[in-house]
């Protein structure tokens, strides 16, 4: 426990570095404003003296002193905005004058009604002077707390010297001077507050700078990742549209086209486990792997998935991903599918309803090969539509806590199966997701890709 306190006080009382001084200088005006407003508002407490004994009996005599306090505090408030004189000097000078005027009121009170009861009553009132002392701790300069303890000690010495002789004889030295101990104790506490505030201010600023730097890096990473996605490219014999959304700036959902000889094309979509930077980097690595994979794998989805599984296991054994690969062979008019633990392909033959095509295969990155990735082949024709997606879409919940689910997605697709093109279909899907299902935002990385076979 003792060591913990030692470490704590060592941290807050350490000498600020040059960078921390710069931070404190930047933050100082905000705390000076906080002090100025606080001391202006709290000084009105002194007007309560007009209604309590013994001051209520001669309130008109002490009112000019209290008005003087208000004028001094108002000058400080104005000075904060004009800054024609050093604000720090005005803070200290106004504090000495204003608090001195209130102490004069107490001297007049004890001299006008010198009784032992009033002496202890006024002592209890004087305890409230810990408020202006602690108000100095709202600033970033600990000297204010020390200075206030000094001048309050001087004021109190003057107060004791002006006590009637009979009261000096009837009261102990401790009862006369214990308030000085209270003032210095409050000042010490205020100094600790100030140093702690300095440390917190420097820490918060440093964290905000780190956050700003990280956001800049994330924005750059997002631009890099965006550049990896297919842009406004023309894919022979296919029209497509896609939607992607991440709760973070970047995410682990990714797709790409693999253009092959004879006009054939592969479509690769992956969902890397996790969120944020690490999953986005793994997704980028997956793109590079698919782009540079031997040609013979690009026409064989199962072999492509096995290759990616081996590479993920060997090179990135802490990560895993689901993936789906569609190989469109437009010469033989067929589609070959390989699925590695990914949501099933949803397809609709021209004029027919959307339905799932069940495929099996183990997730990538574990090298378990169970169940093995099996290929499924089906014929394709003009007007056939294909919908592939990541599970963030069906796992998102509406405002009632209900998941969209696969059945909900199929119902949604079939309600809009008559859309003339894939772009219109995407628009209708997103509109209904936002209005009926309340899915303005998704809790997980979310992506879907709609494809249609052209002539």
TrEMBL record:
Residues 235-453 form the PPM-type phosphatase domain. It holds the Pfam family SpoIIE. Its EC number is 3.1.3.3. Gene3D superfamilies: PPM-type phosphatase domain (3.60.40.10). The keyword Transmembrane applies. Keywords: Hydrolase, Membrane, Transmembrane, Transmembrane helix. It is an enzyme of class 3 (hydrolase). One of its GO terms (molecular function) is phosphatase activity. The chain crosses the membrane at residues 35-56, 62-81, 90-110, 116-136, 143-161, 173-195. SMART domains: PP2C_SIG. InterPro entries: Bact_Sigma-Reg, PPM-type-like_dom_sf, PPM-type_phosphatase-like_dom. This is Putative phosphoserine phosphatase RsbU (Sigma factor SigB regulation protein RsbU). It comes from Leptospira biflexa serovar Patoc (strain Patoc 1 / ATCC 23582 / Paris).
């Amino acid at each position: 426990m003792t060591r913990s306190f030692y470490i704590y006080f060592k941290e807050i009382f350490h000498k600020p570095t040059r960078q921390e001084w710069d931070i404190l200088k930047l933050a100082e005006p905000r705390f000076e404003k906080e002090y100025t407003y606080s001391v202006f508002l709290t000084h009105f407490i002194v007007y309560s003296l007009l209604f309590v004994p013994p001051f209520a009996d001669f309130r008109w005599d002490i009112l000019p002193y209290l008005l003087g306090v208000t004028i001094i505090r108002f000058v400080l408030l104005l000075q904060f905005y004009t800054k024609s004189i050093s604000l720090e000097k005005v803070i200290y000078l106004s504090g000495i004058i204003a608090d001195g005027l209130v102490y004069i009121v107490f001297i007049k009170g004890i001299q006008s009604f010198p009784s032992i009861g009033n002496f202890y009553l006024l002592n209890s009132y004087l305890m409230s002077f810990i408020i202006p002392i602690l108000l100095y701790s709202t600033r970033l300069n600990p000297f204010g707390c020390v200075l206030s303890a000094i001048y309050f000690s001087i004021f109190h010495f003057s107060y004791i010297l002006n006590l009637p002789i009979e009261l000096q004889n009837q009261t102990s030295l401790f009862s006369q001077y214990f308030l000085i101990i209270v003032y210095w104790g409050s000042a010490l506490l205020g100094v600790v507050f100030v140093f702690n505030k300095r440390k917190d201010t420097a820490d918060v600023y440093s964290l905000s700078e780190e956050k700003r730097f990280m956001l800049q890096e994330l924005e750059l990473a997002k631009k890099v990742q965006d550049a990896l996605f297919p842009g406004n490219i023309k894919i022979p014999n296919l029209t497509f549209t896609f939607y992607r959304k991440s709760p973070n700036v970047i995410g682990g959902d990714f797709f790409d086209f693999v253009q092959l000889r004879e006009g054939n094309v592969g479509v690769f979509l992956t969902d890397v486990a996790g969120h944020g930077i690490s999953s986005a980097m793994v997704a980028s690595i997956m793109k590079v792997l698919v782009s540079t994979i031997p040609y013979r794998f690009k026409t064989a989805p199962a072999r492509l998935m096995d290759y990616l599984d081996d590479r993920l296991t060997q090179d990135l054994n802490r990560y895993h991903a689901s993936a789906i690969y569609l190989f469109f062979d437009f010469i033989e008019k067929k589609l070959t599918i390989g699925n590695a633990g990914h949501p099933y392909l949803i397809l609709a033959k021209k004029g027919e309803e959307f339905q799932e095509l069940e495929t099996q295969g183990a997730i990538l990155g574990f090298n378990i090969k169970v169940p093995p990735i099996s290929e499924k082949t089906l014929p394709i024709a003009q007007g056939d539509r294909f919908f592939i997606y990541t599970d963030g879409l069906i796992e998102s919940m509406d405002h009632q806590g209900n998941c969209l689910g696969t059945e909900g997605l199929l119902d949604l697709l079939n309600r809009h199966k008559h859309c003339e093109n894939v772009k219109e279909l995407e628009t209708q899907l997103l509109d209904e997701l936002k209005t009926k299902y309340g899915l303005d935002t998704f809790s997980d990385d979310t992506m879907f890709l709609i494809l249609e076979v052209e002539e």
